[in-house]
Structures are given as C-alpha cells and as structure tokens.
Specification:
With about 110 residues, the chain is of the alpha+beta class. It has helices spanning about 1-10, 25-30, 35-45, 105-110, and strands at about 20-25, 55-60, 65-70, 75-80, 85-95. It has a 5-stranded mixed sheet with strand order 1-2-5-4-3. The chain is globular.
C-alpha cells in the first residue's frame, strides 16, 4: 500500500492540495491488525504535504459486523451495507499538510 500511495501522489501537482482514493480490498484481508496497517501507511502519507487526505476503500461479500478503529485523526470503519455486503474504509489525514480539512468534511467522512 505504501507503494500505491507513492505512485498515486507522484501523478499529482505539488502546488495544489489533492486527495487520493485507492480501491483495494486485499489490504483488509491480509492484515490481522488494522492498527499495524495504519502505522505502516501513515509514515508514507506524511511524506507528501500536497496530499492532505488518503482514503483506502474496499468492499466484499461478508457477514462481518461493524468495526471502528482510530489512531489520532486516522480512522478505519467497517460497515455492513446489507446482510451480505460489507464496506471497509481507511482514512489517513496528513498532519504535515498545510491544507487542513474542515470540521464539516471530517463529519461527512465518518
């Protein structure tokens, strides 16, 4: 995932704040502890001040129940859309970006 963040940010202009959305379901299956994923990926996100927000999204067929994990401003959520469909979202907020996310945007992302 760190390589995906590095690749995606390299395609963005450095003088404009940009968000990155990566669709990847595997990351949520390969890790036993989502906090470990957060620890690994956040260091890569922090390298790019022109990227104030990175979202990793995945969806799959599963009966898994809801889950929430947070580290600082980073947040992981798993929610059931219906009995068989589940969505995972991992949000990284870059604290080193000069562009800060509004309180309204924070609320909408939760």
């Amino acid at each position: 995932m760190k390589l995906a963040v590095a690749k995606e940010q390299s395609q963005l202009p450095k003088d404009v704040a940009s968000a990155i959305l990566i669709q990847d379901t595997d990351i949520f299956f390969r890790s036993r502890d989502i906090r470990e994923v957060i620890n690994e990926v956040e260091e890569e996100v922090y390298k790019y001040p022109h990227v104030p927000l990175v979202v990793i999204h995945g969806s799959h067929i599963s009966g898994a129940g809801p889950e929430v994990a947070q580290k600082g401003e980073h947040r992981y959520t798993r929610r059931s859309v219906d009995e068989m469909y589940t969505e995972d979202n991992l949000l990284f907020v870059n604290r080193y970006s000069p562009t800060k996310l509004s309180a309204n945007l924070h609320r909408r992302l939760r």
